[in-house]
Write a structure and sequence with these properties.
This protein is an alpha/beta fold and about 290 residues long. It has 9 helices and 12 strands. The structure holds pantoate (PAF).
Length: about 290
């Protein structure tokens, strides 16, 4: 594996189809699953490693975001990554050009984190323009981010195929996130209510419940006593709030447990008129986040 610092240096090492995994580092098994998918689908696997200041609405959150390049380089090497792209700074000066997605970028996460998706779309567009991948891999845990990026690609005609991969969960159901390292043992039971509520709602949806308010209230009920930002059933493509589960959708929630903000969702696809929930995949061992 080579560590590269510039777009040209990365592109100079390409062979065949290029798969990009955009990341902000501090890898966990969710990132490794994206790298493995890219390894299977592409000839050259590039992982970008950049904590993007544009997508943080809270400077304290940016300052404490976990970082460890040596650890990450070792993990990427083991996952079979060819190029770890670690730019010195993608935005040495505040960019005058930013990409704001109307509508779907302003709802749910966008309403609670103003400017977040503008920051995401701007950095991802810059990575697509500079690295020119054929394929790009994102986690379904950030379902709204996937919608935003698919729309960005469509609107600006980036010649890249976006592939969304299942959420990876710890053995108790908690969705992997680099931020999980900040959860104290005391906070973990509260954090777990998030995936429990969503997974219960997934059972109900597969058993025939189609009413959005009913599915949302199952999650809210499980989250009693937790600081909830939102619980919402939304369409996968437009991120529009749904009254009924009658098209590809995701049921998402965001909560705050102490200083840690957690998001999670279950996605629903319709197969021959039946609802099929994507609950993600579970680890059967302790996450490497805590080793
Ligand atoms: O999902 C993330 O880690 C980030 O939002 C991304 C896509 C790498 C952009 O900074």
């Amino acid at each position: 594996m080579d560590l590269v610092r510039s777009f040209a240096e990365a592109r100079g090492r390409y062979l065949g189809r290029v798969g990009l995994v955009p990341t902000m580092g501090f890898f966990h098994e969710g990132h490794l699953a994206l790298m493995q998918a890219a390894r299977q689908g592409a000839d050259t696997v590039v992982v970008s490693h950049f904590v993007n200041p544009l997508q943080f609405d809270d400077p304290a959150d940016l300052a404490r975001y976990p970082r460890d390049l040596d650890r990450d380089a070792g993990l990427a090497e083991t996952a079979g990554v060819d190029l770890l792209f670690v730019p010195q700074d993608l935005f040495p000066a505040a960019p005058a050009t930013r990409i704001a997605l109307e509508g779907l970028g302003a709802r749910l996460e966008g309403a609670f984190r103003p400017g977040h998706f503008t920051g995401v779309a701007t950095v991802v567009a810059k990575l697509f323009a500079g690295l020119q991948p054929d394929l790009a891999y994102f986690g379904r845990k950030d379902a709204q981010q996937v919608a935003v990026i698919r729309r960005l690609v469509e609107d600006l005609s980036f010649p890249v195929r976006v592939l969304a991969q299942p959420t990876v969960r710890e053995s108790d159901g908690l969705a992997l996130s680099s931020r999980n390292v900040f959860l104290t043992p005391d906070q973990r039971p509260q954090a777990l209510l998030l995936s429990r509520g969503l997974l219960e709602a997934a059972e109900a949806a597969e058993a025939g419940e189609r009413n959005g308010a009913a599915l949302e209230s199952l999650v809210r009920h499980r989250l009693a006593g937790v600081d909830v930002d939102y619980v919402a059933l939304a369409s996968q493509d437009q991120v529009e709030r749904l009254t009924d589960l009658d098209r590809p959708a995701f049921l998402a929630a965001a909560v705050r447990v102490g200083e840690v903000r957690l998001i999670d969702n279950v996605s629903f696809d319709l197969v021959a008129g039946e609802v099929v929930a994507d609950r993600g995949v579970r680890l059967d061992h302790q996450s490497l986040l805590y080793r």
